Amino acid sequence: MKRSLVLLVAALALGRAEAGSMAARFELNRPIAGAFAAGQVGRVALPGDLFAECRAFPNDLRILDDDGKQWPYYISVAHENTVEREQAAEIVNASFVDGAERYWQFDLLIPEVDGQARLHNRLELESSGLGYVRRVEVFTATQPRGQIATGYLIRSSNHRNAGNRIVRYPATDAARLHVRVYANAKSATESFEVNRATVMHRVTLEAERETVAFSELAVPENESTDAAQTYLLDTGFENRPVEFVSFKVETASFVRGVYVLGRNRENEPWRSVGSGGIHRFGEEAKVEVPLRAQHRFLKIFVNHYDDAPLAIEGIVLEAIPRYAVFEAASAGTAALCYRAWDMKAPRYDLKGRLPAEAAAEAPVFTTMEPRPNAAARTHPWRRYSKLLAALAVGAVSLLVVYVIVGMLRQQTDKA
């Protein structure tokens, strides 16, 4: 009986010590503004510096109330929701037309699907040649024809990741379109053909974005090149997510390839975090490149090769906000607690049982300025908490073995 009691006390003591030390393991916390009722659902926008201050985001991030009780949460990151459908179109009545501007014209027949006309709002044209800029006009095929779009087919011999072969227009279910492709602005006498035409219906719901502040640094001479405009940006925080870079360009017409590198510290190697093309001809423009960066420093190359550098008036960095979606496990106040040693990612069931609509509509709460966690001073061995916990578990296991062996010996002596 005494051995059983000792075993129970040891197990309870271990559990209490582990729970009591949880709040003391975090070096920093940010109080969440507001008071909450038990069961209330909310979202906390994660500030940019939190990613740098965590030791292993999100493993060492918790939401704890004033008594150290954990509130379940999960990290929510929105993504652009794009729905795209495409179908091949048949090219008919193709011919060249000579005039003030020579162009190639053709009609597109767009078949019905299951006996029904389908909406489309984009036309993709694959044409022959290399190094061209061709204006494209799209009309409804009924008489009199009405122009619904103007675009440009762009392909550069130097900027392989830059160009365009999409013409966008208002959604329509027209079964026939008339298309005119004008001569190459770089070589008006070249011959070409359109190899393939595809109509698409694309609807994109853009994700929420936030602007990422940065400072521009001087580019070291050994990191610049005569073939590109080079920019070195500092977001101020390590591990800072950045999803988009866009350029404010004054140059009227251009096509350029962009290459972006990232790193967190000056002694680290640069890593590729994104590449793409930017261009502008008439109303057709693309000045944004998607990134997959989680770095403090970004180095951006805007290649121009033998062309003149662009008149870039500004650069904008944007990120998709990260939210901690939480459920209050107790009434009162709580804080984001982070910067701890040797912590595994928490396992909560909140994401599985909380409807997506409820999470999306949950109110957003801000956090106060970060502050040192006074409780961490009472836990000076927090760096070794994982090791100490393992030793404690080992000690209890040995105690269990000792008790079992003792009980077996008693039974043997009685026999």
Q: Measure the end-to-end span.
A: 20 Å
Provide the residue-averaged pLDDT: 87
Number of helices: 5
Q: From the helix content, strand content and strand pairing, which structural class follows?
A: alpha+beta
**Low-confidence runs of at least 5 consecutive residues:** 3-19
Explained architecture:
With 415 residues, the chain is of the alpha+beta class. It is built from five helices and 28 strands. It has helices at 2-22, 48-53, 350-353, 356-361, 385-414, and strands at residues 28-31, 41-45, 61-65, 73-77, 81-88, 90-97, 103-109, 120-127, 132-140, 147-155, 163-164, 166-172, 176-182, 194-205, 210-212, 215-217, 228-234, 241-249, 254-263, 271-281, 284-286, 288-294, 297-303, 312-319, 322-327, 334-338, 364-365, 371-372. The chain is elongated.
Write the layout of secondary structure elements.
Elements: H1 2-22, E1 28-31, E2 41-45, H2 48-53, E3 61-65, E4 73-77, E5 81-88, E6 90-97, E7 103-109, E8 120-127, E9 132-140, E10 147-155, E11 163-164, E12 166-172, E13 176-182, E14 194-205, E15 210-212, E16 215-217, E17 228-234, E18 241-249, E19 254-263, E20 271-281, E21 284-286, E22 288-294, E23 297-303, E24 312-319, E25 322-327, E26 334-338, H3 350-353, H4 356-361, E27 364-365, E28 371-372, H5 385-414
Parallel strand pairs: 2-27
Antiparallel strand pairs: 1-26, 1-28, 2-25, 3-26, 4-25, 5-14, 6-7, 7-13, 8-12, 8-14, 9-10, 9-13, 10-11, 15-24, 16-17, 17-23, 18-22, 18-24, 19-20, 19-23, 20-21
Helix pairs in contact: 1-5
